Amino acid sequence: MNLLFVCSRNQWRSPTAEAIFRNHPVHEARSAGTEPSARIRISARLLTWADLVFVMEKRHKQRLTQRFPDEMAGKSVIVLDIPDEYGFMDEELIDSIKTAVAPYL
């Protein structure tokens, strides 16, 4: 299953999630951001690739739905409710991501 993790700037939260699941034996993971300044910007191609989309906040889901209505139609999007208050690979962030994602895998 292809997992896509989305946050705003693709600097801390979504790259951490991608790193956690990068070497998973069953799933493939990628990450992107919704902002123009994102390290890797969200695209229609990434959304088409993804089987499951995990967003860090409700506003990320809203942005995806507005910008990519065709690609988002029927797409499973899970809001993780993880605030932007962590650094890359922060232990608490890792625990939060693993706990929030586990029920869907």
TrEMBL record:
Transmembrane segments: none annotated. Residues 1-105 form the Phosphotyrosine protein phosphatase I domain. This is Protein tyrosine phosphatase.
